[in-house]
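Quick entry, no commentary yet.
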Amino acid sequence: MLDADQARERLREILNRAEYKVYEDQPKGFLQSWWDSAKEWMAKQLEKLFPSYEATSAAAGPVLAVIIVLIVIVLGAAAYFVIRNTRRSRQYRDKSPLQSMRELDWTSDMHLSEALKQEQHDYSKAARHLFLALLLYFHEKKWLEARIWKTNWEYYDELKKINQNWADQFYHLARVFDEVTYGERKLEKEEYDKFRKEAMERLEEPEKTMEG
C-alpha cells in the first residue's frame, strides 16, 4: 500500500500530464482578462490610499469585486442621466417659447400678473407665464429681440453678448420651462418656489447689473 508521500507524487505526475495541463493553457476570454485587469488596478489604488491594505488577503477578492461592481453601477447611472438630459435638450431645441401672437403682445407685467394668479392652483402654468414675463422683460430692455419663431437657444445666444452670467441663468430657467411646456412635467410647490425665486431676482435686478 502506497504511503502518503508516494500518493502525493503519483497525483502530481497525473496532473502534469498533457490532458490535464491543456486546461491551464487555455487563453483567457475578454471578460476574464478585463476582470483580472480591473481587480489588479483597483488593488493598486487601494494600496496607495491604504498602505496597510493587503491585496493578497483572503478578503481582498470579494472586497475588490464589490468595489468594482459599485463603480460600474455609478458610472452607468451617470451615463444614463447625461444621455437623457442631452436627448431632452435636443428634443426641445427647435421649440419656440412663444406659442401665439397673443403671448408676444402681452407685456412682461401682464405675464407676471397671470403667473401670480396661476400659482394658486397650477405651478406648471405659473412657471410658464413667469418665464415669459422674464423673456419679455429682456425684450423691453432691448437685451434680446423676442419673435414668435425664435427658440430659447437663440435668445440665449443674444443674451450672452450682453452678459454671460445672466445668459447661463436664463439657460437654466429655459430648461425647466421646456420640460414644463413640452415635456408635460408637473412642478411641485418646492420646485416652483425655487424657479420663482430665481426668475424674480432677475426681474427685480437693476439694469446696471447687465453692463459689462
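second:
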Amino acid sequence: MLNNTLNKILFKNNVIKKTAVLAVVTSLFLVGCGNDQNFKREVEGNEDYLKSPDLKPLIIPEGTKIPAESNEFFVNTTEVHGDLGKKLDIRPPTLPISTIQEAFAIYNNGSVTFNVPLSSNVWEQIPNSLNKRNILIASHDSNTIQTGKSFMVRADEEQAVEASYSIKRQLLGDTETITISITSLTRGTENLISQPVEVQRYIVGLFNDIMNDVAPDSMRIVPAKAQDKNDEEKNKPESKKTATSVSDEDQK
C-alpha cells in the first residue's frame, strides 16, 4: 500500500515537472514569434527559384527555317541588381490619406503636399501631434517647422529608424498648402535617404499619423444606415398591418 502511494506521488511530481518545462518552452517560442516581424515583408515559400539556370542562346541548325523576330516576344536578359529571396521587401508603399473635407494630399518625389482650408486649423495642431510621438521640434515659426532627429518605431520593423523632417506651409487665399519632406533617414549606420521606398514609407507614415490626430469628430463616428421604406413596413407591428388591410377591404 505504501509503495503504491509513493509511486502515485512520484508520478504526479513528474507530470507537474514535465508540464512546467513544456509551458516554459512554449512561452519562449511564442515570445520569439512575437518579436520576429519578418513575415510581414517576406515572400512565403522556398527560394529554389533562385537556383534556376541562366537562359542560354538558342542554337539554330543550318538550313532550318525560323519565323521572323518580333519585339512582342523579346526576352530582356539585362541583369537586375537588387534584393532577392527573403531579403526582398514585399510591403507596398504607403499612400497619403486626407481626413479633412475639401482637402487633398499627394506624394511626389520624396514629399507630401497637402492643401486644406484654413478653417480646419491643421497647422496649429501639428506641434501637438509631433510631441505626442516624441518627435523633437528644433525650430518653429508661423510657416516652418524643423524637427530634430527622432526614432520612428514601426511594428513591421525589427530596428527603428532615426529621421528628421521639414514641414512648411504656404498661404493661398482661404487655404494653406503644407509640405512635409524628410531631411535625414538612417537605420543604425545605414543611410536610407537614397532609397525611395523607405523615404516614402516614413514621410507618408508621419503624414497619416498627423491626419489621424487632426481628423474632426465627424470622421470618427460611423453614420447610422438609413432604413428604406420597405424595411419600415416590415418592422410595423402585426396589429397595424391587420388594421390597414381591414380598412382597405371596407373601402372596396
